[in-house]
Automatic annotation (TrEMBL):
Protein name: ATP synthase subunit C lysine N-methyltransferase
Superkingdom, natural source: Eukaryota
Keywords: Membrane, Methyltransferase, Mitochondrion, S-adenosyl-L-methionine, Transferase, Transmembrane, Transmembrane helix
Residues of the signal peptide: none
Location(s), subcellular: Mitochondrion membrane
GO cellular component: mitochondrial membrane
Family statement drawn from the similarity comment of this UniProt entry: Belongs to the ANT/ATPSC lysine N-methyltransferase family.
Keyword check for Transmembrane: yes
Lipid bilayer topology: Single-pass membrane protein
Family matches, as InterPro entries: FAM173A/B (IPR026170), SAM-dependent_MTases_sf (IPR029063)
TM region positions: 26-50
Gene Ontology molecular-function annotations: protein-lysine N-methyltransferase activity
Organism phylogeny: Eukaryota, Metazoa, Chordata, Craniata, Vertebrata
Keyword Heme (UniProt): no
Length: 228
């Protein structure tokens, strides 16, 4: 645009600049919103996907209400401390706290831990529950006299060794859906995918001390493909 044209029609040059500026501001806003949404989506989804990338894949599959009832049924004569290893959305910990346990959950996924704390607060059991963002393989379960685990078959032999060496002799362990490979359960409750197995530390710790081979026991056949 020549000097002359500018002199005759000065508004034309400025409105062009204003258009350009507002277009680039809109571009920045759109980039910010899209970028921010992607970062937020990644932050939420990554902790749910991460377990699948570990050596032992233990995904978030919440216990059914029949499963929770079975856990409470087999522990009805017990009290004191309880831990749910891989506590998910906190449903077992919260149900146990409502039945008088001082209950804790160890969970890798921070979103699930924050949600569990919120649920415990909403249900009025925040004083008798604790939730830790923690890797189960790095935590010690020595302080707990009742232990609940809804794991996967691939991790159960390693967990047997860990719990055998850590737990007090007075402890009971409840396995949901998948039993331990060599421990002998003292009883079971429920059927199919809702089955829970109960183990007494006195038994599995004495077998450990007597050095019985890990394949000494034959247990009920397990069907580990029943995740549904
Ligand atoms: C099968 S779900 C069981 C959830 C809960 N216990 C229930 O019964 O509803 C297993 C949970 O373990 C968590 N998890 C996976 N790997 C873990 C690890 N290394 N340490 C702690 N928690 C883990 C998963 O995020 C998932 O929430």
């Amino acid at each position: 645009m020549s000097q002359e044209e500018l002199f005759v029609n000065p508004g034309q040059c400025c409105s062009g600049n204003t258009d350009k500026r507002s277009r680039s501001r809109l571009g920045l806003i759109v980039t910010g919103v899209v970028g921010g949404s992607l970062v937020a989506l990644y932050a939420v989804a990554a902790p749910f996907v991460a377990p699948a990338l570990r050596k032992v894949c233990l995904p978030f599959v919440p216990a059914t209400s029949a499963q929770v009832d079975n856990v409470l049924k087999v522990l009805r004569a017990r009290s004191g401390t309880l831990v749910d290893i891989g506590s998910g959305d906190g449903r077992i910990v919260i149900a146990a706290a409502k039945h008088g346990f001082q209950a804790s959950g160890f969970e890798l996924n921070p979103w699930l831990v924050w949600y569990s704390r919120y649920r415990a607060w909403r249900d009025g059991v925040h004083r008798s529950t604790s939730f830790y963002i923690s890797d189960l393989w790095k935590a010690s379960f020595a302080p707990y006299s009742n232990v609940v685990i809804f794991g996967v078959p691939q991790m159960m032999d390693q967990l047997e060794l860990k719990l055998s060496s850590e737990l007090p002799i007075t402890a009971k362990v409840v396995a949901c859906r998948f039993p331990f490979p060599t421990w002998i359960p003292e009883c079971t409750e429920g059927e199919g995918i809702d089955t829970v197995w109960v183990y007494d530390a006195k038994t599995f710790k004495s077998n450990l001390h007597h050095g019985l081979p890990r394949d000494t026991f034959t247990e009920k056949e397990i069907k580990p493909d029943s995740w549904s």
